[in-house]
Amino acid sequence: MATISASSSIDVSGIVSQLMQIERQPLTAMKTTLTGIQTKLSAFGKLQSALSAMQDAARALTRTDTWRAAKATSSDESAMTATAGSGAITGGYTIEVSQMAQRQTVASSPFAASDTVVGGGTLRIQMGTLDSSGTSFSADAARPEVAINIAEGATLADIRSAINGAGAGVTATLVSDASGQRLMLRSTETGAEQAFRIAVDDTDGNSTDASGLSALAFDPAAAAGAGRNLSMTQAAQNALVTVNGLAVEAKGNKLEGVIENVTIDLKRVTTAPVEIGIDADSAAQRTAIDNFVKSYNEVNKLIASQTAYDAATKTAGTLQGNQNVTRIQQQMREILRSTVAGNTPNSLNAAGIELQRDGSLAVNETKMNKALASPQSLQNLFSALGTSGGDGSDVGLARRLVTRLTDLLGSDGAIEGATESLRARQKSVEGQQTRFESRMTEVEKRLLRQYTALDANLSKITSSFAGIQGLINNLNNSG
């Protein structure tokens, strides 16, 4: 006997999902395009960074400081050391030290301990100068007396702290020996003008005796125990030096400017003349050259990798075939191969910086050492300004590179132009992607409505078939 059957439902989600995979295929192409754009933007970012580093290295070769770098040597570093700054004049200097600069230092009589009560009142510290006998003090009017209030019952340690917090030009320290604790006072700086006097206003009524706070009084013109109650252990004095026979007096033991652009650190009185030599610092100049060679080679290596084509894997570099990058590479090499008119050496190759077959630079040590022996000529090769109104053939090579790189890296340069074009394209594709995603959302909604309606209709048909099948079964049973 005949029977009728029909499916009761369909997989709406599964069908719509499969259909949407087909509909979304253009989106995959868009994502691939965006990935390619972002990869190129990253490559141009790396190139921009490498070119900027190369520009910095080339600019260093145009600076006068690079070529005026000097080094100093001392025949006796236990007596003095020397440091040459940029622009120091090469030559030799004979230096003798008959006296080192010192701080004035005074010390108190011993106290039992740091917590021994000394007394209260006011310490008045005045900076100035002592005469050669150490008994006549001349106050420095430009540095007013500093008054330090000391509380009644203050200990030796309290007074030490009060002095250090006053900024009076004097520092205080507690020194311990077999007889007890002493308060030591020193001027903060060296030099004859760093002497000091201490007057006391003692709350016990006697401001000059050795009792109470007045035990810390120090008046060089007073008698011991009557206003001169601290012992001088070191006098404030200037350094006395002769440079090539010329007598020089200095406030400190670091001589700056005595020899132009040279700093000399004195360490002790000399017993024999010390020779200070100033020579051109070829090592610093070589470092600047090596930095330039390294930075260019990094640019060359980056461009080579980004524009290469691997025939074996049939894979092209990110910037392979990009005319902007090709032009940049050609322009750099053109400058590196050029000459500087009127100079010897007149080219990088002549100076020992040789262009290799792969486009990189390598240093020929023999040529380079010879060129470094004439730093002025080497400086001209890299940094000569050229003749005003000339054709530019006498402009230094590093200066030419800096100018060209400034153009390339500027807001109107090739790098910015290429990246702006890529960003515009990226924005366009992202807009297409957004619009496509919005359209796919509507397509998915439409398909869900259609297949949901179809599923509902099939359910109704299935229900009708079931009713018909029931009638047929009843007829068969009654027959």
Give the key terms.
479 residues, alpha+beta, 3 domains, 11 helices
Structure description:
It is a single chain. The protein is of the alpha+beta class and 479 residues long. It folds into three domains: 26-64 and 284-416; 70-101 and 238-280, no CATH class; 105-234, no CATH class. Helices cover 42% and strands 24% of the residues. It contains eleven helices and 22 strands. Strands 1-18-3-14-15 form a five-stranded antiparallel β-sheet, with no helix packed on it. It has a four-stranded antiparallel β-sheet with strand order 8-9-4-13, with helices on one face. Strands 5, 6, 7 and 10 form a four-stranded antiparallel β-sheet that branches. A hairpin with a 2-residue loop joins strand 16 and strand 17 (262-266). Helix 1 runs antiparallel to helix 11 (414-478), helix 2 packs antiparallel against helix 11 (414-478) and helix 6 (323-337) packs antiparallel against helix 10 (397-409). The chain starts with 11 loop residues before the first helix and ends with a helix. Mean pLDDT is 90; it is low at 1-8.
Please outline the helices and strands.
Layout: H1 12-23, H2 25-60, H3 64-67, E1 70-74, E2 80-84, E3 91-99, E4 105-107, E5 121-130, E6 137-139, E7 146-150, H4 156-164, E8 170-177, E9 180-187, E10 195-202, E11 218-224, E12 226-228, E13 231-234, E14 239-243, E15 246-250, E16 254-259, E17 262-266, E18 274-280, H5 282-307, E19 309-310, E20 315-316, H6 323-337, H7 348-351, E21 353-355, E22 361-363, H8 365-372, H9 375-383, H10 397-409, H11 414-478
Antiparallel strand pairs: 1-18, 2-17, 3-14, 3-18, 4-9, 4-13, 5-6, 5-7, 5-10, 8-9, 14-15, 16-17, 19-20, 21-22
Helix pairs in contact: 1-11, 2-5, 2-10, 2-11, 6-10
